[in-house]
Amino acid sequence: MDARMILARLRQNQQPSTEELQWFAQGIADQSVSDAQVGAFAMALCMGELDAAGRTALTMAMRDSGDVLSWDLDAPIVDKHSTGGVGDCVSLVLVPALAACGTYVPQISGRGLGHTGGTLDKIESIPGVNTDISGDRLYDLVRKAGCAIVGTSVRIAPADKRLYAIRDVTSTVQSLDLITASILSKKLASGLDALVLDVKVGSGAFMKSVSEARHLARALSATANAAGCKTQALITDMNQPLAASLGNATEVAEVMRAFTGGDGGRLVEIAAQLGGAVLAQAGVVATEAEGRDKVRRAITDGAAAERFGQMVAGMGGPRSFIDNWARLLPVAPVIREVKAGKDGYVTAIDGEALGLAVVAMGGGRMVETDRIDPTVGMTGLIELGTRVDAKSGLAVIHAPSEEIAIVMETRARAAFYIGPKPPPPPPLVYEGGTGWAAPSWLWWTASASAAHRMRIGSLTERSRMSGPIRWPTLSWPVLKAGLKRVDPALCMCRIWMRWA
């Protein structure tokens, strides 16, 4: 086969065959397909989608590009995955909590992608931790600690490892097919019995509307269940950072506060919702409610923290980390508070802009070879609906220098929209969880005007990161179609990108 022929078929909106997708995935893994061809493949899938059969074929081909793990353990093998957000350190809380609840959790995770942080980058901010471990060490760590959070160096989905890095630097992150294949190729290769998916939606997520998130959740669930892995997807809110911190070491500190008696708030509650779902799927508990209570107890009684400490020590980190985390985590040299500058209520937060600001400080990657600064980020992030005055703090910048802190103070302030009235509180879970949640239309309708303003700012922010945006000339039918969406600017830009 020839990569050029497969790319030509995609350019002509033709569906590649299963054999072609298998060949291309293997070529990504063994380097017989060039970086340029991989980038062209990713861009083609951003501009047009595969059908359900093609999506499943690509996912399975990427899974089979490397090893598929098998386990001989005395309890279910489970995992969770988030589609990405800001302040999303749920894995660091939930993985050890699930281990404490009687399951095994071999999480094959990834690094920062776009404006979102990566779980591997976060846990590697702990001194000495190494997430690149062999298959034998992975099995031994999971058997002893009950859990592990590692990279793909154990020959798990090597095609995804390469494609993941190229997507990050070619602005091809937002593709249903690539997101589905990337997530599930690693998860299916991990030999799981059950999986729960946290599909984020909102200003800090890749999916900006509930309808987009629902489309992804259904694609992920259908593909995983068809592959024989019991899977449930929850659609959860990302219109504000999940934790009060962004960054790497800063988010690990947030997790440790939740483990050691602090108020975990929405972070712990999301972990409980996801944990309850996957424990029920795996048959560990009879109901999701029972599973949620079990996860909450593991977090509050110290059992999850104990598992986390065992995992960290098993990956080369300090054995005394749980007791001495505040002293051991690295700290940025400059800390600067961001003042609101005006009176009112926080009615919208552009999470994507905040995430890009952390990336610009060195907390993420602009190009594949960038080194992460684990100390930079933000803490003390204020929540939606909070009443502020001009002297109120919105966030605290952790920067590598005073000059960068001053620039980031301005960028962070611009990411908070302050209006005269408080918005209705967004639901924690839109779909897929249990318990009461405000109707999704209520939040999206009430925040539409603020979201529109924040999206314009985010598009401007993105242009500073990756070049100027070409604005389309829109006809009235296209404009009318865009205005029916909650997020008009983003919708119109996507319509243009698809048809230009």
Count of separate structural domains: 4
Q: What is the CATH topology assignment of the largest domain?
A: Pyrimidine Nucleoside Phosphorylase, Chain A, domain 2
Helix fraction by DSSP (H/I, runs of at least 4): 40-55%
**Strand line-up in the sheet with most strands:** 1-4-5-13
Q: Rounded to an integer, what's the Rg over CA atoms?
A: 22 Å
Estimate the strand proportion.
5-15%
Main pleated sheet: 4 strands, mixed
Summarize the structure.
By secondary structure, this protein is of the alpha/beta class. The protein has 21 helices and 13 strands.
Produce the secondary structure layout.
Layout: H1 3-11, H2 18-30, H3 35-47, H4 52-63, E1 78-82, H5 90-100, E2 105-108, H6 119-123, H7 135-145, E3 147-150, H8 158-169, H9 176-189, E4 194-201, H10 210-226, E5 230-237, E6 246-247, H11 249-259, H12 265-281, H13 288-300, H14 303-314, H15 321-328, E7 334-339, E8 344-349, H16 351-363, E9 377-379, E10 387-388, E11 393-399, H17 402-414, E12 416-419, E13 429-431, H18 440-446, H19 448-466, H20 476-483, H21 488-499
Parallel strand pairs: 1-4, 2-3, 4-5
Antiparallel strand pairs: 5-13, 6-9, 7-11, 8-10, 8-12, 9-11
Describe this structure in words.
By secondary structure, the protein is an alpha/beta fold. It folds into four domains: 3-48, no CATH class; 78-327, 3-Layer(aba) Sandwich (Pyrimidine Nucleoside Phosphorylase, Chain A, domain 2), CATH 3.40.1030; 334-447, Alpha-Beta Complex (Aldehyde Oxidoreductase, domain 3), CATH 3.90.1170; 449-499, no CATH class. It is built from 21 helices and 13 strands. It has helices at residues 3-11, 18-30, 35-47, 52-63, 90-100, 119-123, 135-145, 158-169, 176-189, 210-226, 249-259, 265-281, 288-300, 303-314, 321-328, 351-363, 402-414, 440-446, 448-466, 476-483, 488-499, and strands at residues 78-82, 105-108, 147-150, 194-201, 230-237, 246-247, 334-339, 344-349, 377-379, 387-388, 393-399, 416-419, 429-431. The strands form four sheets. It has a four-stranded mixed beta sheet, sandwiched between helices. Helix 5 (90-100) packs across helix 12. The protein is globular and about 65 Å long. The two termini are 30 Å apart. The relative contact order is 0.12. Residues 434-500 have low confidence and may be disordered.
